[in-house]
Write a structure and sequence with these properties.
EC number (chain B): 7.1.1.-
Strand content of chain B: under 5%
Main location (chain B): membrane
Strand order of the largest sheet of chain A: 1-2-3
Helix content of chain A: 55-70%
Structural class of chain A: mainly alpha
Distance between the termini of chain B: 32 Å
GO molecular function, one term (chain B): NADH dehydrogenase (ubiquinone) activity
Number of helices of chain B: 20
Helix content of chain B: over 70%
Keywords (chain B): Cell membrane, Membrane, NAD, Quinone, Translocase, Transmembrane, Transmembrane helix, Transport
Structural class of chain B: mainly alpha
Strand order of the largest sheet of chain B: 4-3-5
Shape of chain B: globular
Distance between the termini of chain A: 42 Å
Protein name (chain B): NADH-quinone oxidoreductase subunit N
Largest sheet of chain A: 3 strands, mixed
Largest sheet of chain B: 3 strands, antiparallel
Number of domains of chain A: 2
Oligomer: heterodimer
Number of strands of chain A: 3
Strand content of chain A: under 5%
Radius of gyration of chain B: 22 Å
Largest interface: A-B, 61 and 83 residues
Radius of gyration of chain A: 27 Å
Number of domains of chain B: 1
Order of helices and strands of chain B: HHEEHHHHHHHHHHHHEEHHHHEHH
């Protein structure tokens, strides 16, 4: 393999300490955290106004973020990294982990995205969850999530980042399983939990390796000395971080939990599983640019994972009839684009973040739109029972269309600018991944058009007692705001603003000429997307849509419906062997130990004198195991030393 | 023959002597005081003895003088049999603090309606008329307090011993009262007595190995003193097999006490069968004392032969963590789950034992494995005492209800108690912002620095598997609909509730600002060699 990028100058994180308005940055996290604490500990006392408080803390946090952002705009480029030390968390000898915050151009954008979209979704949830008796608790969890996510992007070291990382995982688990009376929701929560643990192992190991290699876990410390570490160490670090990113961002091979996570309430899907949390992996890689720039093998691996995922997700999106799962497949695929850009190094980091922001807007918009449709269709998610919703829900339709045009990359809309840039950079750096990205854009055009047609156009296939109606304005206003952002977010690229803005964090790339003129590439992308859209029009729009999924379909469709056998692969490789191991150990434990004891007092009384005889045997078997242990210890000592 | 009067360093040894003195006094009280006045007297005697010893420990600790040019402070006393150095004093403090918690739990009488959790008349056969009479008269075994004090004395002696024989004597002094205490439960007496018998038989079995190992090491080194054994290990290359076999057998005795795999088989049965107050005391204090002794033996006596015993410890640590985590997943009883969880924690501490040792071998400012292990023991002790204290509160008509289904929905009926339990579990799971996280972080980093990354890898995998069963229990308490009979939280006297409160507070504070305690452990310095 050849290196995908030449190493350019890698910026060092070197923040100045916080003063003036910046000394308020802790408030951004503290507000939602206080909200969560009040709502979750306050109990029923807070039932009546809990949702308002939750929304207010999130909005307050947004206001502070805005203030900080404008302050930062006013600063010199070289002076845009500010840190605030709250207190020393762990300090002993070398090990010095501070509760330190870092505010720089990268975290500034994240703060706006998280608190801004977060607040809109809080507002929307007031309407969406109005009939739920546990609404207060829901808002408490949402606040908790926002606080943890802010911690993740504001921490100045990997330990603090890990704290946020675990926090969003916990909030996500609680929210996916929020409707715990549904067994599917409980199972989905568990699955997300387990798969994320695998990713977290990678994160934890990476942090230890950071500490062992560099003696610190802070970004500033590591970025300063990263170039001094060996190639193998850096590659290992990169791969471990990638494993963490794969778990949180649902990248192959840890992708299977995201589709199931759609069991959670729709605002949750919009906030956590589309706009913010699942993009944490991208943040991690961009933030760790000082590692990845020096670890070409890990970077290559990021690109491979991303390319596979962007196609994998797109294929899933084509086959799903559940509107939320189709959108989830698309999320997976779009995060693949971001990871791809991040894996391309300095040339791509800024575009990864750019696509992350635009995607945050249009995907949140579409998820909330889907929620609005479901709200009108008695919570049915099957697109085969939708059709012609357009007239019943004009506002939802309009806002959803904006999101649709943005995601397929219709010229002028935000997604057009961000995706086009990624494809261009990919083609420049490596034409194979470039083609994969191009193909992905075509498939995106197909599945999104299919979703649009099946939902809003074609004939009515509603169930009998369904009477779709427009949602209340508390739900449509956030939709309108997000729709406007989906259209307009492209302005961030005006004059390469976002590239320059992020340059203090990720560095300036040397300009490489793309293989074709940029305009030609854009033309090709638009053409490929148009082909996808047209294909959907002829294959879905012009045909009768069956009420139940047809069974006489090709192998490819069947594979896509089965999530490309992602679960089967997990089952075969991990779950089944694991289960056999546990049951084997269990049998061993039972025969050796457990048996009668677990029965407790009643069993003891009933079996009475019998038990004592049996019990003697047990001690003997224990003693035998001790003896075996003695042999093990002694033999291990002798073999290691004398052999 | 001239008789030389032995010199005893009373100024440094008096905390131990106070504990043993209070224990002996307790026996006298038992013999001469009328029954109705014994309980209060014994509790006061034990409590005062422990507090006095704790104060003494602090005084001794601040007064230790630096020895030579190393990082070690303190002295070798008792005619060369005992070492009072920084780690000793720190471990004494830990044992005493947890023992005070133990006394508070022992003295709790409100939960059983006016009597303690200990059998009214241990000699009466279960299910007989004698037993019924004893319980009708409201009898109480107040001998438990002197027994506890003797055990505490042994636990203080154990990590302070400077030769193999003292270590063996200390091991027996701490073990014998524990065997008895395990058999004294008021409820489920058969279970309790069997636990005691098992613990005794297996303990005696492992002690025999320990003693045999002592003999072999003496044969190799020609001395019982740790410093001289170290000298022999350093110089002598003959008879290495004898040393290795001896070392292995001594290790077995210690590994048995801390409940490391494959010597863990007694743990679940004994933890479950013993009265819960005893379990709490034993789980925290025995582990502290035995790890202290293990550290001293392996760092001081066998320290220069590190490369020969470390691979064996690697295997044991890995095995312990995996066995503990995997078997905890399949448990359906709270006490057994906590027992297996304690097995896996033993594995984590062993991971720390594998780290780089003396601060003289480290770069300036790096953490030594001694500090990491001491800190881990501190965090774990508070969580485990607190967790078992909560277990004593959750009861139904038949006493403590430890089966999982009984705990379903507890969080809705008693959010405060269930919340405290959940907090202890989160700490044991090592979730950030609890003490367990900092502890795990410390032991993992020292092991990583020493190059034991395969062990750290397994440790992370095991702790992640462990998160599963801890969270599952939290979900059971807060999110599961109760079915059938459920347990309720019984109102306790301040003794138990204050203990739980202190443990919650310690777990919380050590997670948020662990600095002062880490500094304390760092200041404890090195072992005297």
């Amino acid at each position: 393999m050849y290196a995908l990028t030449e190493s350019a100058h890698i910026p060092v994180v070197d923040p100045s300490s916080a003063d003036g308005v910046f000394s308020l940055m802790w408030l951004v996290i503290a507000l939602p955290l206080a909200g969560a604490a009040l709502l979750l500990l306050g109990g029923r006392l807070t039932d009546r106004w809990g949702h308002l408080l939750g929304t207010a803390t999130s909005a307050g946090s947004f206001v502070v973020s805005l203030l900080l952002f404008f302050q930062l705009l006013g600063r010199e480029e070289g002076d845009r990294q500010i840190s605030q030390e709250l207190y020393t968390w762990i300090h002993v000898g070398d090990l010095d982990v501070g509760m330190d915050l870092l505010y720089d151009p990268l975290s500034a954008l994240f703060l706006l995205l998280i608190t801004g979209v977060g607040t809109l979704i809080h507002v929307y949830s007031i309407g969406y969850m109005s009939h739920d008796p546990r609404r207060r608790r829901f808002f408490g969890y949402l606040n908790l999530f926002v606080a943890a996510m802010l911690m993740l992007v504001m921490s100045e070291n990997y330990v603090g980042l890990f704290l946020g990382w675990e926090g969003v995982g916990l909030a996500s688990y609680l929210l996916i399983g929020f409707w715990q009376h549904k067994p599917t929701a409980a199972a989905a929560a568990k699955k997300a939990f387990v798969m994320n643990r695998i990713g977290d192992t990678g994160m934890a190991l990476a942090i230890f390796l950071f500490f062992v290699t560099f003696g610190t876990t802070s970004f500033s410390g590591i970025s300063e000395v990263a170039s001094g570490a060996s190639d193998n160490t850096l590659n290992a670090l990169g791969l471990l971080l990638l494993l963490g990113a794969c778990g949180k961002s649902a990248q192959v091979p840890l992708q299977a939990w995201l589709l199931d996570a759609m069991e959670g309430p729709t605002p949750v899907s919009a906030l956590i599983h589309a706009a913010t949390m699942v993009t944490a992996g991208v943040y991690l890689i961009v933030r760790s640019n000082f590692v990845f720039e020096l670890a070409p093998a890990a970077q290559t691996m990021v690109v491979i994972v991303a390319a596979v995922t962007l196609l994998w997700g797109a294929v899933l999106g084509c086959a799903k009839d559940d509107i939320k799962k189709a959108l989830a497949g698309s999320t997976m695929s779009q995060i693949g684009y971001m990871m791809l850009a991040a894996g391309l190094g300095t040339a791509g980091y800024a575009f990864a973040i750019f696509h992350l922001l635009t995607h945050g807007f249009f995907k949140a918009n579409m998820f909330l739109g889907a929620g609005s449709v479901m709200h009108g269709m008695n919570d049915d998610v099957d697109m085969r029972r939708y059709g012609a919703v357009l007239h019943a829900m004009p506002v939802t339709f309009l806002t959803f269309s904006m999101g649709y045009l943005a995601i397929i990359g219709f010229p002028g809309f935000s997604g057009f600018w961000s995706k086009d840039k990624i494809i261009e950079v990919a083609l420049t750096e490596n034409w194979i991944v470039g083609l994969a990205a191009l193909l992905g854009a075509g498939i995106t055009g197909f599945y999104m058009t299919r979703l649009m047609l099946m939902t809003f156009f074609t004939n009515k296939r509603w169930k009998e007692d369904v009477h779709p109606h427009e949602s209340p304005s508390v739900m449509t206003v956030p939709l309108i705001v997000l729709a406007a952002l989906s259209v307009l977010a492209g302005v961030l690229l005006l004059g390469d603003w976002i590239v320059d803005w992020l340059a203090p964090v990720v560095g300036h790339a040397e300009h490489h000429e793309p293989p074709l003129p940029a305009l030609v590439i854009t033309g090709i992308v638009v053409l490929v997307v148009a082909t996808g859209v047209a294909a959907a029009w002829f294959l879905v729009g012009k045909r009768e849509i069956a009420l139940t999924p047809p069974q006489d379909v090709s192998f490819a469709t069947r594979a896509a419906r089965a999530d490309l056998y992602g679960d089967a692969i997990n089952e075969g490789l991990v779950v089944t062997p694991g289960r056999h191991l546990v049951s084997g150990l269990l049998t061993f434990d039972r025969s050796g130990a457990d048996g009668f004891f677990t029965g407790g007092a009643s069993a003891v009384a009933a079996i009475g004198g019998q038990l004592r005889k049996v019990q003697n045997g047990y001690v003997r078997s224990y003693a035998l195991s001790v003896l075996a242990g003695v042999l093990l210890v002694v033999v291990a000592l002798l073999v290691v030393n004398l052999a | 023959m001239e008789f030389v009067k032995p010199t005893i360093e009373y100024a440094e040894l008096w905390p131990i002597l106070v504990v043993f003195g209070a224990a002996c006094l307790g026996v006298v009280v038992e013999a001469f005081l009328p029954r109705e006045r014994r309980h209060l007297t014994q509790v006061i005697l034990a409590g005062a003895g422990l507090v006095a010893a704790l104060v003494g420990t602090v005084i001794v600790g601040t007064g230790l003088t630096s020895l030579g040019d190393g990082a070690a402070r303190g002295l070798i006393g008792g005619e060369g049999t005992l070492v009072i150095d920084g780690p000793t004093v720190y471990l004494w403090g830990l044992v005493l603090v947890f023992a005070i918690g133990g006394v508070a739990l022992f003295a709790e009488r409100r939960l059983e309606g006016g009597v303690s959790a200990f059998s009214g008349q241990a000699a009466a056969l279960p299910g007989t008329e004698a037993e019924r009479q004893a319980s009708a008269r409201g009898l109480d075994h107040t001998e438990v307090y002197p027994l506890l004090m003797f055990a505490v004395g042994g636990m203080m002696l154990f990590p302070a011993s400077n030769d193999l024989l003292t270590m063996f004597v200390a091991l027996e002094v701490l073990s014998l009262p524990l065997y008895l205490l395990c058999g004294l439960a008021r409820r489920r007496r058969l279970l309790s007595q069997e636990a005691a018998l098992k613990y005794f038989l297996l303990g005696a079995f492992s002690s025999a190995f320990f003693l045999y190992g002592v003999a072999l090491v003496y044969g190799f080194a020609g001395s019982m003193q740790f410093a001289e054994i170290n000298e022999a290990v350093r110089n002598d290359v003959d008879n290495e097999a004898m040393l290795l076999i001896g070392m292995g057998m001594i290790a077995v005795g210690l590994l048995f006490k801390v409940g490391a795999a494959p010597f863990q088989s007694w743990t679940p049965d004994v933890y479950q069968g013993a009265p819960t107050a005893v379990t709490a005391f034993m789980a925290a204090c025995t582990k502290v004392a035995a790890f202290g002794a293990m550290l001293r033996l392996f760092y001081v006596a066998f320290g220069s032969d590190r490369w020969s015993w470390q691979p064996m410890m690697w295997v044991v640590a890995i095995l312990t963590m995996l066995v503990g985590a995997v078997l905890a997943i399949v448990q359906t009883d709270v006490k057994r789950m906590l027992a297996y969880s304690s097995v896996s924690h033993t594995g984590f501490v062993l991971t720390g034992v594998l780290g780089v040792q003396a601060s003289s071998e480290l770069a300036e400012g790096q953490v030594s494995s001694l500090v990491a292990v001491l800190f881990y023991l501190t965090t774990y002790g508070f969580s485990v005492v607190g967790a078992f204290a909560v277990v004593t509160l959750v009861r139904d008509s038949a006493g403590e209800a430890t089966a999982f289904p009984r705990w379903a929905g507890l969080g809705r009926r008693s959010p405060l108690v269930a919340g405290a339990f959940a907090f202890f579990l989160l700490s044991m799971a090592g979730i950030p912002l609890t003490s367990g996280f900092v502890g795990k972080w410390a032991v993992f980093t020292v092991a990583m620095s020493a190059g034991a990354w395969p062990v750290v890898l397994v440790a992370i995998v095991a702790s992640i598997a462990a998160v599963y069963f801890y969270i599952r229990h939290i979900r059971l308490m807060f999110f599961t609909e109760p079915e059938g009979d459920v347990a309720a939280v019984t109102r306790s006297s301040p003794l138990t509730s204050v203990t739980i409160g202190v443990c919650v507070l310690a777990t919380f504070v050590l997670g948020i600002v662990p600095g002062p305690v880490l500094d304390l452990a760092t200041n404890a310095g090195d072992f005297i060699r």
